[in-house]
Design brief:
The protein is an alpha/beta fold. Helix content is 32%, strand content 18%.
Length: 293
């Protein structure tokens, strides 16, 4: 459980949140709170910058202003295991009041460094299976956060793809093993749905943009009607914009569904993408945090 010496009031906004016990906020004189942020994106990545901008905007709406009552320490570019652990260790050493974590790998790195500082994850596909929380209703420990979907969505992605392109009879399910070690959580429902649609299901691990392009090329070269269904974190840290660019680079791409968003963009060159409205997502889901001594 959380250290009761520091009373927290933490509410996660929007989506499917993991519940966390909290204490009521007491009126206290203002002091500067410190928030650590661990991002897998490079500091120059436009998607990552949009998420941080939304986070800052939401904090400001809640009365938290940098330079007045809150300090935000952001570590970028936690792309590999070594850099993630180093950044996690450095953030924990700062002893922030809480830490915001981008995804599954960054959360795992932070959890190895502290069992006391509250950690809020922004996007984790399977928080229970990843060992971050005991259950969605009663997470326990010092980790809680936001999960955008559950396992059965793996089958829903295929259903959506079949609606977009009914003739598809072979689908590659892409996932990044580094960012989605829990892929089976979505793969099993995906394979079950594939069997019901008489669709051949292909498991396609993707570790970088070049690997993503290779999968798309391989699909387009087949004579069969093919499709691609990326999993939840195949794009982190690849990002949705890079997936779109990869599709465009092919000149002719298979129909695809991407589950991070509810906003559809009309197909271009056969690549149908859905991606998250990042400002809305991070602005709502991440943090309304009032931490009292």
């Amino acid at each position: 459980m959380l250290d009761v010496g520091r009373r927290q009031f933490i509410t996660l906004l929007g989506g499917a949140t993991v519940a966390w016990p909290f204490a009521a906020r007491a009126q206290q004189p203002e002091r500067t709170r410190r928030i650590g942020v661990l991002m897998a994106f490079a500091e120059s990545d436009t998607d990552g910058l949009a998420r941080i901008a939304a986070f800052r905007e939401e904090l400001q709406k809640l009365g938290w202003t940098e330079g007045r009552n809150v300090r935000i320490d952001i570590h970028w570019g936690a792309l590999d295991a070594e850099s993630r652990q180093r950044s996690a260790q450095e953030l924990v050493a700062l002893q922030p009041d809480l830490i915001l974590s981008q995804d599954t790998p960054t959360t795992a790195a932070l959890q190895r460094q502290t069992r006391a500082i509250p950690i809020i994850f922004a996007t984790v596909g399977d928080p229970v299976g990843s060992g971050f929380v005991a259950s969605l209703a009663r997470p326990g420990g010092n980790v809680t956060g936001f999960t955008p979907m559950e396992g059965s969505m793996g089958g829903k992605w295929l259903e959506l793809l079949k609606e977009i392109a009914p003739r598809v009879n072979r689908v590659a399910f892409m996932f990044n093993p580094a960012t989605a070690p829990y892929a089976e959580y979505f793969l099993n429902p995906f394979k079950a749905a594939a069997a019901s649609f008489a669709v051949e299901a292909i498991t396609a691990p993707v570790r970088d943009t070049s690997g993503l392009e290779s999968v798309i090329v391989a699909q387009t070269q087949r004579e069969m009607e093919t499709g691609v269904a990326p999993s939840a974190e195949v794009l982190d840290p690849l990002s949705s914009s890079r997936t779109t660019r990869a599709c465009d680079a092919m000149g002719r791409s298979p129909p695809s569904s991407q589950p991070l968003d509810v906003t559809a963009k009309p197909p271009s060159n056969g690549c149908y993408c859905f991606w998250a409205p990042l400002r809305q997502g991070w602005g709502r889901q991440v943090v309304k945090a009032h931490i009292n001594d």
